[in-house]
Amino acid sequence: xxxxxxxxxxxxxxxxxxxxxxxxxxxxxxxxxxxxxxxxxxxxxxxxxxxxxxxxxxxxxxxxxxxxxxxxxxxxxxxxxxxxxxxxxxxxxxxxxxxxxxxxx
Length: 105
What we know:
Layout: H1 3-16, H2 21-39, H3 52-68, H4 78-88, H5 90-94
Helix pairs in contact: 1-2, 1-3, 2-4
């Protein structure tokens, strides 16, 4: 992952770790990559309700995901994505869901 993509992903993760509506939208976007089957997909109209820079970062990350063909835990970000699941999808944690399990549908 090049520096431009890493920077965009870092910004999205930082926003998603917050507690705002924009944070929720970033978390939904990122968790759709992590495991859309369990965490839910991403509503692209949510990009209408984030700052333009955030939407631009989503586009950068989306393009990378389309080329990468792997989940985010294959890189340095696994723990941060697990934390997002705990924060935004606590019902998965309570149900004993394996946070590292991916649903390849």
